[in-house]
Specification:
The protein is mainly α. It contains five helices and four strands; from the N terminus they run αβββααααβ. The structure holds heme C.
Length: 187
């Protein structure tokens, strides 16, 4: 342990004692329902792979490996994809906000328009047929379509007002993000 790390652990130990906490409890990790990621990284690009797996080596050092398949695309297509992706993230965040407010209509509309099938090609228009979709390997394109499908499904389910079904449907959407992110990279 380095001198600095020692000092940090001594300091955090002292803080723990001072706050009267005798044990630092590690939260138990429970597997998420619906997302079943394999233990070992499978073949590249099959849609279930884990990216950036830390593989312990014989000498105990951890080697950082990126198992994602590279999907090369022209600069413009990649830029459009980035805009889409950022909007996906913002849309998800807005959906959580609407759910908290119980504004189911807005959650549904945001999901359909920004993540669902209605969102496809929203920015690709700028590219005149040079949108990211055509440069994706087949599996990646399928994962993209799958994500749009489950987002459209969520847009319907959320209107039912059934919380359990709503969250199950929402997790299908985030699983779509996860599956592709664990399998593909663009650079
Ligand atoms: C079809 C595959 C695919 C799907 C589905 C997908 N993504 Fe991505 N996303 C990517 C790839 C590939 C990158 C670029 C990763 C890289 O090359 O570093 C990316 C990048 C991103 C980024 C980073 C953008 C930046 O600032 O550079 C965000 C944020 C993101 N995705 C959010 C999402 C969210 C949220 C979802 C689900 C609602 C989602 N993505 C679904 C493939 C996908």
């Amino acid at each position: 342990m380095s001198k600095q790390a020692l000092m940090m652990s001594a300091l955090s130990g002292a803080l723990l004692l001072a706050s009267g906490l005798a044990v630092a409890v590690e939260p138990e990790r429970t597997p998420q329902r619906g997302v079943t990621l394999p233990d070992a990284p499978p073949a590249r690009g099959d849609g279930t792979g884990r990216g950036g797996t830390i593989t312990p080596t014989a000498d105990g050092q951890a080697a950082l490996e990126d198992h994602r398949q590279l999907a090369t695309m022209p600069e413009k297509a990649r830029a459009i994809m980035r805009i889409d992706m950022q909007d996906h993230l913002v849309a998800l965040n807005e959906i959580f906000g609407y759910l908290a407010e119980n504004n189911l209509a807005a959650a549904s509309e945001t999901a359909e328009k920004r993540l669902g099938n209605s969102s496809m090609g929203r920015h690709a228009m700028m590219a005149r047929g040079q949108g990211p979709g055509r440069f994706m390997p087949e599996t990646m394109r399928q994962l993209g379509w799958g994500m749009h499908d489950v987002a459209s499904e969520f847009a319907l389910v959320v209107k039912s007002g059934d919380a359990a079904r709503t969250y199950t449907a929402l997790q299908k959407v985030t699983s779509g993000c996860v599956a592709c992110h664990m399998s593909f990279r663009t650079r």
